[in-house]
Each structure stands twice: as structure tokens, then as C-alpha cells.
Amino acid sequence: MTLRTALILLSLFVACCAIVLLAWGSGSEFYFFMPALRRHALGTPPTHPLGAMILLVACAALYLYSPHYALIYFSALLGSLILGSVIGYGVFAWKPTAMQLALTVAMIAETCYGWSVQSDLDV
Length: 123
Hints:
By secondary structure, the protein is mainly α. Helix content is about 70%, strand content about 0%.
């Protein structure tokens, strides 16, 4: 992987983490659509920003093992975030916050760039 590719991926990831930290500082919230701890139940909104940060840190840890699997995990997180916006609004009458929308845009940018340079990641 070239230095340029690594710096772009790192800066996009730092932007995602910064959005989560800004949300935490401002009292904003997210909703990741995931199963709850109980069987056959859905998690209800909102998800605390600490939960979002833990999910992003897990992605970074997975990147050290395999960049390809980290990209798949990050894409699944993005899908969960988008589903959280749609299902949270439709089912739970939860309105997506500005920070949720900003994080979605930042994650879309990183996911698109990550998949476009995916062949460079598998070194």
C-alpha cells in the first residue's frame, strides 16, 4: 500500500472518529440497527456515541489482522448505520441527528475509497 493511500484512509477514519467524539461532546446520538442482547429482539434507538466509538475501534483492530476483513466489517457498519436511520425513523419514530447524517457521509466516503483501492490493501 502506498503512503498516499494509507494517509487518505487514515484521514477518513480519523474524520469518522472525530464526528463520533463531537457527537459525544454535544450530547448527540446515533442508531446502529443491530440485534439486542435478547433473542429475537431489535436494539432500540439511540446508540450512545461510546458504542459507536467501540465499533470503530474494533474495525481499526481488525485492520491490523486483515485489511480486507476490516473493509467488509466497516461496510457492514455503514449498512447498519443507514438501516438505523431508515428503521429508526419508520419504526421507532426516532429522527436521525445531524451527527448521524455526517457520520453516514464520512463512512460512505471511506467505504467507497476503501473498495476502490481494495487491491492495494491486500499486500
